[in-house]
Request: fold
Amino acid sequence: VALLAICRSGAAFCPLDPEHPPARLAHMLDASKSDLLLTAGAATRAMATAVPVLRLDTDAPELAVARCSPAPIADADRTAPLRPDMLAYVMFTSGSTGLPKPVAIPHASICQVLRALAGAIPMQPGQALLSVTTIAFDVALADVFLPLLQGGVLVLLTDAVLRDPVAVCRALRQFRVSVMQATPSYWRTLPLHELPPSLCAVIGGEAFPVDLLPRLTAIRDIINVYGPTETTIWATAHRVRTGDARDGIMPVGRPLPGCLTWILDREGIPVPPGFPGELHIGGSTLADGYLGDADLTAQRFIPCPFAEGRMYRTGDIARWREDGLIEILGRADSQLKISGHRIEPDEIEHAIRLIPGIEDAAVILRDEHERSVLTAYIVVAPGVAPLDRGVLRRALADRLPVWMLPGACVNLGRLPRNAAGKLDRAALRSIPPAATTRGSRPPGNPEEALLCSLFAQVCQVARVGAEDDFFELGGDSLGAMLLVTEARQHGRALSLPLLFERRTPAGIAVAWATANQSRAAGAETPLFLIPGMGGDAPALAKLRLACRGRIDMVLVEYPDWPGLVPPGYDMAQLAEAFATRIESLAPSGVIRLVGYSLGGLVAWEIARKLTDRGREIGFLGLLDCATDPPVLRSDPRAGWLQAAYWDASKVSAAFGTGRCAETFGSVAAGRLVRRASRRYALHGLAMLRRLPVPVHLRYWLHRYVSEALHADIIRRWHASWARTTERRDLPAVLFRAESRIGLPDDLGWFAHCRNIGVVVVAGGHESMLADDRLGTLADAIMRAVDESGSAAMSGLAGGPG
Reply:
């Protein structure tokens, strides 16, 4: 909201990352000539400045807005007319002088780039873009503005979720995200096999590694983008296809509308296709230059002999392909790229030389397997002890952001130089970091051995000891996410909080052993919630909150749009999907389940499947679930769901307009159902969800289709299960709504479960989950869980209570 307000007011913004060192933030505030600091919460403490501060988490902004006119902002409201050439924002990049340099972007440039990106990355109204980039990186501005300009949805996550690769993939599915852009380094951290197939991946900020492509082929689209900050976010784009890469290089495509590109030799003459030269970019997307530094601006932004205006010398070596695509080959200088950030080695080297006892330093980027490791080569003064990477990173932490801290450190007697006396960076690449540990003990059990191996793989070191600290080994936030994903591939549930707390293989292994013992003892095991039809159960999410602090609950979602093509899923496949998910979260110990409504039947089948695998079921809660509910006895062609659930009043209340209710009613009230078989009607509705309908209509349409599909799955299974005489010894408790009329007290469960217990709870089938009754229901569930397997629970055995 603040970014939009600043743009509309005619002012300019300078985004800051509160995780940067305070001294660096203070320099940015000063160099950007900022007049006001907008901040909130804990970020305020990171800023020590004389600039006036406005905290957005107080009442002051709301009170000020309340006094303003709601009419659109006009030039009469501004201190001066807003023109396209006025400054829109200032973005900092690494500088060769030891300090970051401010790039000034006008309104015209960012507007042109956003228009061009809307053509390269089209979004339908209602489609969502998930932003995973810090606001201090200009890619985030495309994240914010691009979906809003196209009528899309912007999804923002907390920092804790963004650093959890499993949670990011879950958010991609939960919010049905259509577009996400990130660096290759970030994409590598995710469990790529779990990405939704409807996703468009926008990849930029670093060279596209060709080995990443085969792992992304299951998603809808891949777009490779390129552009320096000085040309406003992205300058070129390419829709990637298999076989596009040549000689291991993926093309960055053609210039976006508004961008002009030339590849020139040292004399400024255009080179023919296939020949390397320095890439120059002109057109209407250029920055104004470097704020307050006319000399540097004149060096990098030079007159263009081929078109009107200026062009920017990127420093990137590139070549044209014969098909008109551009390939980036490397740098003409020593500038580096890591995690999407441009890094000037001079800035890091300058900071290292400020450390007492350091005589000289050089920094290079070493490519090790799938990661790039920033490596520092240092020369200490005579009599000064050599530095290891942990000491070096701690010494630099108050000067440099975390992504500029070296991940490896090599002590040398002197730096290699060529015949002209200049630093020989090529010679440095032949000197790898020492393949030694910090003297900690070797791994003592299989868990420690696995973690040592994963630490070494992610941190790119030869050997790791059981007591070695992940972050002192050079691990960073992206490395931590990659470690979580790799551990998951080995069947281990490693969370980021656990990694940050324990930090060493030994510490994590002890935590795992303790958790396994607790699960084996039946303590602290999660209670898995299985929703009713469709998997959309906000009431169960509220139940989790009501039980927070008493028991850990996990809401397990249904597969999205299962089996749309006949014959579709069956119950065995559905239960298998649930069981696999549950066992990945609880690899050992007892399993506890709670199913609501038809979800109780699914929970029963899951419990049977897990029992047949040898897993112990410690508790099975059935929230008002009947074994023979009327909804399953009705004619599947009669449109029961429409009559029982999608009446016009509910739809109208949800949409707020009669037209939306009428539109949905024409579909959901059964026109398709009356004219064709239900199976093809559902398939038609599934196709209809892809149309550019309003997002709220799309949401309810999704619920209708998925719930109907899940109900059909249960109906087909129920036809045979309801006639079986098999009875199971499962520790089940039925929580029956007191308003149930015309059904037995046990809702038919005693015929299937020998030791079913019955607890009557206030309310009806839906109102038992109402806000004012959730506390009572939560108490009843907790008592039943505590008593499961005890003498108190055995008193309920043998029949309904």
The radius of gyration is 30 Å.
